[in-house]
Write a structure and sequence with these properties.
The chain has about 375 residues and is an alpha/beta fold. Helices cover about 20% and strands about 35% of the residues.
């Protein structure tokens, strides 16, 4: 329940207080709101809680978000220009000191255009007219507490990634080592994990477990939250590289359309690390294939045949291939049927014997073919 307090102006405090914005605007016959809110509050849905109230009440509004922490003169001046174009007749300020200060400066300058340089408002300015009406919705109270937001995306597609685990450590002061673990969070389906209520100082954001099917690119980042009385929301962006896949095909050399099951291979990374749970040993399936998912992108894999299918000669030549992020790379091994090599040698021998017989009828030396 919201409590209504009337001093110089009207204030509402308590659960549901923002719902009174629509009643106040209608009571005062306001036509259109100029909503001042910073980009982070818009991103995290805080501003939407207020604009939903306006939408449900059928009240017009326009959002202005060119507001930085410790807002600049340019932030105010572009806000004044936007207000003039908007046909708004009152302001709604949502956020901490930055949004409040920007809205107040815009409201004063609209009513007192002689102060449009902004600098002349410093101190106690001799304004002649009251500010344009402002409805303030503060999101902070007393000492500002801060937030760190992790945003996790796929390095190839840019899509948000859920399921990545991050740990936050507080170092204290402007720098430090070790640090106190604040806790761990897992990114949601929007790729975000948020820590709020943080005091100023240095923090380390560490990725401790990537999303399934992905590899870590950058494991940690240091963030500093300034002690300047302003609420600070810092977004730290991490990317995960999608794992690569390997497809091995085993075929008959004489007829590559014939695939060969039950061929055994030893598969390792180039540094000798075995792949899989069976000391690097894999066997082709009924389709003559081996498919391995979740391989580390950028690494080279060496594949060696260790046992040929029954009735076929082993291919002793190893093959090497580099794994690519988010893609399936493939290798094909070909086996000769057993006896093919003997038949080929026999054919060569017969040809040689024929050449010797022909030698008696010519002056050319016999040749093997």
């Amino acid at each position: 329940m919201a409590n209504r307090i009337v001093l110089n102006e009207t204030s509402y405090h308590g659960a549901g207080a923002i719902a009174e914005i629509a009643n106040e605007a209608k009571t005062r016959a306001f036509k259109k709101a100029f909503v001042c809110s910073d980009p982070d509050l818009i991103k995290f849905g805080v501003t939407k809680k207020v604009t939903d109230v306006l939408d449900n009440a059928g009240l017009a509004y326009e959002i202005y978000s060119n507001i930085k922490p410790n807002p600049t003169i340019e932030n105010v001046q572009t806000g004044v220009a936007a207000f003039k174009k908007s046909d708004a007749d009152y302001l709604i300020a949502i956020g901490g000191g930055s949004s409040m200060d920007t809205a107040k400066a815009i409201g004063i300058i609209i009513a007192n255009p002689e102060f449009e340089d902004v600098r002349s408002l410093e101190g106690v300015a001799p304004t002649k007219k009251p500010s344009i009406p402002i409805i303030a919705v503060p999101t902070t109270a007393g000492t500002a507490l801060n937030a760190i937001v992790v945003h996790k995306t796929d390095s190839v597609t840019g899509e948000a990634l859920g399921g990545a685990t991050f740990q936050l450590r507080y170092l204290g002061g402007a720098s430090g080592t070790g640090g106190t673990v604040i806790g761990q969070k897992v990114t949601g389906s929007n790729g975000m994990a948020i820590w709020t209520g943080l005091k100023p100082g240095s923090y380390i954001v560490e990725e401790v477990d990537p999303a399934d099917g992905y590899s870590i690119i950058q494991s940690s980042e240091t963030v500093y939250l300034a002690d300047n009385g302003e609420q600070s929301v810092i977004t730290v962006r991490f990317e995960n590289m999608p794992d690569g896949n390997l497809l091995i095909r085993k075929v008959c050399s004489a007829n590559p359309s014939v695939t060969l099951p039950d061929a055994e291979f030893k598969i390792t990374y180039a540094d000798g690390t075995v792949i899989g749970d069976s000391n690097g040993i894999f066997v082709t399936d009924e389709n003559g294939e081996i498919r391995i998912d979740g391989l580390e992108p950028g690494k080279s894999v060496i594949v060696t045949e260790t046992r040929a299918p029954a009735g076929y000669e082993i291919d002793t030549q190893s093959q090497t291939i580099q794994i690519q992020a988010g893609r399936t790379v493939s290798l094909t091994f070909k086996n000769d049927k057993q006896g093919n090599q003997i038949s080929q040698l026999s054919a060569k021998h017969s040809n040689y014997q024929q050449n010797i017989q022909n030698y008696g009828n010519s002056t050319a030396p016999p040749t093997a073919s």
